[in-house]
Structures are given as C-alpha cells and as structure tokens.
Design goal:
Elements lengths: L1 H17 L12 H6 L1 H12 L18 H6 L18 H6 L8 H26 L4 H22 L2 E2 L13 E2 L1 H15 L17 H13 L1 H5 L4 H10 L35 E5 L11 H5 L2 H8 L11 H4 L12 E2 L1 E3 L3 E3 L18 E2 L17 E5 H14 L3 H14 L11 H11 L6 H8 L23 H6 L10
Helix pairs in contact: 3-6, 3-7, 6-7, 7-8, 8-9, 9-11, 11-15, 15-16, 15-17, 17-18
Protein name: RagB/SusD family nutrient uptake outer membrane protein
Family: Belongs to the SusD family.
Pfam family, one: SusD_RagB
Length: 495
C-alpha cells in the first residue's frame, strides 16, 4: 500500500509539472539568448556568408556562371564565352563583351536578385544580433557584410533601391542616388571596421576580419571619383596602409616542380589560399560549399579529359590582344593554353566571330589559372577564390601615390609585383599607364578589371570584337523585372 501511495503521489507531481508552463525549459534557447551567444552569432553570420560562394543559378560572387562574376568580367576585354558555330553557348556572354546587353538579360537579372537576396540576409543578421545584444564584433561583421553587398550593387547599377530593415515590401523600396549609397557604405565601414577581429586564418578564413574590412574600404575609396565625382586618393592610401598592421606580404613566386604550372605563385589560386598574401577568400569544396568552374568551363572536352579525367565545357576564352600583353618572361603567362595540347586539341588565338556565326570549336586562348584541385568533377573544382589579396593592395597604393604626384613612392610597390612575376623592375618611376598594365597582368580573371577599366578610362574603347561604346554602358540597366515590380524606380539613362 505504501508503494502504491508513493507511486500515486509521484504521478500527480509529474502531471502537475508537465502542465506548469512557467517551468524552465533547458533544451531550447530564446531567440535573444541564442543570437547573443557566440555560437548563435556565428549561425546568423553564416547565413550571410553562404550568399557569397558561387553556385548554380547565378548565385554568388564567383565560382559558378550566369552571375556577378560573369557580368563584371565578360563585359571587359579579359574574357568571353563566344557562341560556337557548332551551336553551343547562349548569346548572353557574347552580348556582354560586345556591350549589347539588355535590361531583360538573364545574367543582369540574376546579379540583381542575388545582391538583394544577400542584403535581405544581412539585414536579418544585423537585426538578430542587435536585438540579442550580441558581441559588438559580430554585429560589426554583419554590418560590414551588408556594406559589401551595397558596394557591389552601386558599382554595377548606380542609383538603386535601398533598405536596412526587412519590413518594407519590394514594391515600396525607395530608390536613392549612387552617392547616397556610397556614403552609407563609407559610414558603415568607418564605424565598424575597427571593431572586427584581427585574427587571420582558422575560423576567420573566408570572413571579414579587420584587414578584409580595410581592403574593402580601400576599394570603395579607390573608385570614389567614379561614384561621386570627388576623388579620395588620400583616404584610399590610408586604408591600404592599415593593411601593413596585418603582417601581409607577397607570396613567393619561385619555381616549384610540384606545382602543375611550375611556380609557387599559383598556390594563390589553388586549395587553401596562403595567408601571407590572401586577405579575403571564398572557401570552396565542390558539391559541398560553392564550386570553381573557371578552368573546366574554359577547356575543350578532350583536353580536360586528358588532364583531369572529365570533359571540359569548351566555353571561356581570352581575347588575343589581352593574351599578347603578357611577355614570355612573365610567369603569369603560364596560366594560358595556346597551340597543341593533350587530348589532340590545338587552340588557335584567332577568333573571327563571337555571335554570328560564332567561333570555331578550338578557337581562342584558354585559361588554367585556377588549376583544378580535388574534390573535382565535370561540375567544377575546389579551388578557393581570392576576393582581396596583398598584390592588389600594393598596386592600389602605387596608383594613389601617382595620382597624388608622388610617383617615386610608387616605384618599389610596382617593382615588387613585377619582380615576383619574373620581370625586371621599371627603369623609371611608374606612370598611370604602367600601373594599369600591371593590374591587367596581375589580377586577370579575379573580378577587378571592369572597375579598373572604368577608372582608367578604357572601358568604352574599342576591343577585338567591337567599336567604341556609348557612355551609358558604364552602368548596367536596372532589370525589367525590378521595374515591373516597383513602378517608382527610374531606369538608368540610355536604356
């Protein structure tokens, strides 16, 4: 009887406890507690970083196709995918290179949608972290990420819809001027960069630490005159000089028999990127996190099959005049394939047509700068992608010095990049043309060339396949879908 009584009492206590909603629940966090923790803050940020890696459907900064990378590289003179006279490849890429793009083009719409989706995710992370009183460094990181996406948006499209809270419907978003977006980005960066972690590598590989934040700020200042009409060379120089506190240096370019391209230099474009030079990278593991298609997309099928064991896509080529800018002594020329290749393929540098009837199957110089690393297959490889690296910063510093009338201070900076590549030092102080040419050689296929061409006044000049372009081509059009969704938006002039 005693046992029955005690069992009954415990049963009532159990049922009473189950119906008491005031009890503490130990297997769940409140939203504030979760995002206020270190683990929860990282979860909020991870949702934003996931937007950067390139994947199918035009998503991401770089790594896959039909998105931001293609829009900003194939509109320049450094690469293009020609329509082939065998019927392969859509015409969108050729139209980009010919400066004939339209507001309805798939790549333009994809880029716009990716950027606004990323801004939505960044707004969400900022709100979650601020509401939870999270670590100020994590809040700052979310704000810097949002500034990064707005910077890319204003760079491509100029005056754009703007919002920092996800409470406004798309059809009501106000359009603000390019200079207003620029000022927002500058304010966000200057208010938050110094709050970011100074850690390099480890959990901060592929994340905005303080050094990546200053690299971004330097890029914004570098192009300030394009965005606002007012140059900010001193401010760009100051941001670049902050990078010296991060302990960065040029990665060695020495000969290396174990490298498929023969030099340590190409470790900058392989798997885990070296942190002596890499400031911000996209982490890639094919079929898991992002992908890197750039080599497999360039090579012809039998050539890629012979080299890697799977067919190439026979897509991207390097225009002949761009390839010819590289001297034979330059180790950076090793990234190009021309002439007879394994697999019985011979690439010819001459390309007679991009669109009608299109290029011959083996026409065009190919690029293997991102020589595939495993895991890899016919859908891409696992090469990480450098968004910012120290060679770029040195050339930015050199440009600022020359523009400010201090060319003598620029010489050692340019020479360091040249000598690493196997070239002689300049025989005189660098000119702006020298710096532009060095950027062409050093930063090929890394996503900076459209900005450089616009800043140096070469973007509208004729190239191998077209005559001079109209002024309005310095901006891409706002996509037709966006205009239809928000009738208050004004299209960029000329479209």
């Amino acid at each position: 009887m005693r046992k029955i009584f005690l069992f009954t009492c415990f049963s009532f206590l159990f049922f009473s406890a189950c119906t008491n909603v005031d009890e503490h629940v130990y297997d769940k966090y409140s939203e504030k507690d979760f995002y206020g923790s270190a683990e929860g803050a990282n979860v909020a940020l991870a949702g934003v970083y996931a937007k950067i890696g390139g994947n199918w459907g035009g998503v991401g900064y770089a790594g896959a196709d039909n998105g931001w990378y293609d829009l900003n590289t194939m509109s320049t003179d450094e690469q293009v995918i020609p329509h082939r006279n065998t019927g392969d490849w859509q015409l969108d890429f050729a139209r980009l290179h010919l400066h004939q793009w339209l507001p309805t083009d798939y790549i333009i719409t994809n880029t716009w949608n990716w950027l606004y989706s990323s801004i939505f995710s960044a707004n969400l992370a900022v709100a979650q972290l601020e509401n939870a009183n999270a670590d100020p460094a994590k809040i700052a990181e979310a704000r810097v990420l949002r500034a990064f996406f707005y910077y890319l948006l204003m760079d491509d499209f100029g005056s754009v819809p703007f919002y920092t809270e996800n409470t406004i419907t798309v059809d009501k978003l106000p359009q603000v001027s390019r200079s207003e977006v620029y000022q927002f980005v500058v304010n966000e960066l200057t208010n938050n960069v110094d709050k970011l972690s100074t850690n390099k590598g480890g959990e901060y590989y592929g994340r905005f630490n303080r050094w990546a934040g200053y690299a971004l700020l330097a890029k914004v200042y570098l192009n300030a005159e394009v965005y606002t009409g007012t140059a900010k060379w001193n401010e760009c120089l100051a941001a670049c000089e902050k990078l010296t506190e991060g302990g960065f240096s040029l990665h060695p370019g020495a000969a290396n028999a174990s490298s498929p391209l023969g030099y340590q230099y190409y470790e900058l474009f392989g798997d885990k990127l070296p942190d002596d030079e890499t400031i911000l990278a996209i982490y890639v593991q094919a079929n898991v996190v992002s992908r890197n298609i750039f080599t497999i997309r360039s090579l012809n099928g039998p050539n890629a099959l012979s080299l890697f064991g799977f067919n190439g896509w026979n897509g991207t080529i390097v225009p002949k005049s761009y390839y010819e800018k590289f001297s034979d002594a330059d180790i950076r020329k090793k990234q190009f394939l021309v002439g007879a290749q394994p697999g019985g393929v011979t690439y010819t540098p001459e390309v007679t047509s991009l669109d009608n009837p299109g290029a011959d199957r083996n026409a065009g110089v190919r690029n293997i700068k991102f020589y595939p690393v495993a895991p890899m297959d016919g859908g891409g490889a696992s090469n990480d992608f450098p968004i910012y690296r120290y060679a770029d910063i040195l050339l930015m510093q050199a440009e600022c010095h020359v523009r400010l009338g201090n060319a003598a201070q620029a010489k050692s900076l340019v020479d360091a990049v040249r000598v690493r590549a196997g070239l002689n030092a300049l025989t005189a102080n660098p000119t702006l043309t020298d710096i532009y040419n060095e950027r062409v050689l050093e930063l090929n296929w890394e996503g900076h060339h459209r900005q450089d061409m616009i800043r140096f006044g070469t973007f509208l000049q004729p190239n191998d396949f077209r005559g001079a372009s109209e002024e309005h081509r310095k901006l891409f059009p706002i996509p037709t879908d966006a205009l239809n969704t928000n009738p208050a938006l004004k299209q960029n002039p000329g479209y």
